[in-house]
Amino acid sequence: MARAASTLDYRELARRRLPHSLFEYIDGGSYGEVTLRRNVADLQAIELRQRVLADVSSIDLSATLLGERLRMPVGLGPIGLAGMNARRGEVQAMRAAHAAGLNFCLSTVSACPLAEVAAAAKAPFWFQLYMIRDRGFMVDLLDQAKAAGCSALFFTVDMAVPGSRYRDYRSGLAGASGLRGSVRRVFQAMKRPLWAWDVGLRGRPHQLGNVAPVLGPDTGLEDFFAWMRDNFDPSVTWRDLDFIRQHWSGPLVIKGILDAEDAREAARLGADGIVVSNHGGRQLDGVPSTAHALPAIAEAVGESLTVLADGGVRTGLDVVRMLALGAKGVLLGRAWAYALAAHGEAGVAHMLQLVEAEMRVAMALTACTSIAEIGPDILVRR
User: Residue 258 CB: number of other CB atoms within 10 A?
Assistant: First the structure.
């Protein structure tokens, strides 16, 4: 089994492991993928101030997020279809996160349903929710999240309509319906025999567990994408937070904030946290990178809520950069999806070890011995 020497190596390992269309789904963004590239480039361009002759013999990475004490201020963010990257993939990722002293957020459109993940969990996990037209379905889903013991709800607000992800059409994941599309995807799977055996055959059932009841017998990928286009609610407004609060009493995090005015509105309406995010460059192309938008948003809300961030984070250095820009915690996305595709639970566990090691080095060489000491002062200002 090829072992990644760094967190960045997992992308190539995932490409070799996954059928082409599934890799493109993880790897791609919307339209020309300008924002996808900006997320990475803008974050990596941020320079850290190296400081010397400071006592960094003891470094504490622990932090409290949403009332939970974590080994480091990092979580695994929600990723749709992640369970297709490894056999019962969300369960494997959740186990790796909890073993590392971190938390995991299950997507509404996961392969493994809430009940399956809860049955395998030894600690509470987070749940991510989209606004669906069918409010009865949403109430049922929130009841399931409460029954599963989910400790926080991440309400995603930047997907009133799905972005156009051209890679998915070119690869045959979307838009290739009927026999032709099925044959194309089967052919791609046959070119990845390890995946075909471990996930394609042993990883059944291949359903989107949380939405399977409303999809009914039509559970193919083309049916899912059609359902998503027809059932995500473009009429949702800030007033709909009242509906969420009526059915959810735990911590509520608004995911998909990219403007300071929206962040202030989330704070005014009593959200417990926000995720500064452009959906990994998968929604509106051409918007600012998370790294560019984060400082103004963090300044606008101050300590009134917990500011989390995602987008372009591939390494422990990137986590430190996000914290220095104003985030209190960071959600990993593609980083854990690549690792899961490459080596399942063991891959995610190893990736998190690498992130922690990279954070320790970055903190030591910027003279930070605790997460609280990471701030704008460790950045080079030009």
Answer: 23
Helix, strand and coil percent figures for the chain, each rounded to 5: 50, 10, 40
- 110-161 per-position pLDDT tens digit: 999 999 999 999 999 999 999 888 899 899 999 999 999 999 999 999 988 8
Rounded to two decimals, what is the model's pTM? 0.95
State the Cα–Cα distance between residues 82 and 128, nearest whole angstrom: 13
Q: Where are the domains of the chain?
A: 9-377
* 264 vs 64: CA distance, rounded Å: 22
Q: Return the active site residues.
A: 279
Q: Are strands 74-76 and 273-276 parallel, antiparallel or unpaired?
A: unpaired
Query: CA-based angle 166:170:171, to the nearest 5?
Result: 115
Distance, in Å, from the CA atom of 94 to the CA atom of 125, rounded to the nearest integer, reads: 8
| The token pair that represents 373 in the structure block | 């000491």
Buried b (16+ CB within 10 A) or exposed e, 103-118: bbbbbbbbbbbbebbb
* Cβ atoms of residues 320 and 364 within 8 Å: no
**CATH code for the structural domain at 9-377:** 3.20.20.70
CA distance 107 to 191: 28
